[in-house]
Amino acid sequence: MELKTIIAKDLLRIGAVFFRPEKPFIWASGIKSPVYCDNRLTLSEPSVRRDVENGLATLIERHYPVAEALMGTSTAGIAHAAIAAHILNLPMGYVRGGAKDHGRQNRIEGKLVPGQKVVVVEDLISTGGSVIEVVDALREAGAEVLGVVSIFTYGMQKSAERLAAARVQNVSLTDFDVIAQVAADEGYIRPEDVARLIAFRNNPADESWIAGGAE
Predict the structure, then answer these.
(1) Residue 209 pLDDT more than 50?
(2) FRET label pair with 212: which of 50, 72, 158, 200, CA 20 to 30 Å apart?
């Protein structure tokens, strides 16, 4: 079974990704979404955690073979970066959302050597803004950012454009399209809901997908 499908099944089974097209969730931005994602739940399920961390390590070895350190995003990416770094026997650190207001006022925690080749570990990519901020902080500190690995990506056009403009490559364990199809195949949602979900993914600001499920 393909890795993307394995991870999709894992995330659906533990409710880390939960589809509710009939009663959308409201994002902080006000956008109505048919999906809720909390990949922190993977840490509480040993079998899923094993699939995720081994998967992240595999992606890093495959796409960023010269990586010298992993840097997690704060806070969701920290644990995943730590476990994947342990598997790969690599140094690890993380990047805060902002500099501390006390002590050494660090934003980057852990040892970072200028010129070091690093990979950013993120739990999910939606619009791409937060992970780009992390990449910018690492670049400002002298790191050579090879790219990003993440558990899940929505695959939105906005994130693709932002990542391309920032010269950032992201590789994810699974994505919105795969999870939507697996959810339909396994009865989490109706088969006819898949098109509605993809319509949301293609243009989150257009709420016409909601009415698409009306009888």
Answers:
(1) yes
(2) 158
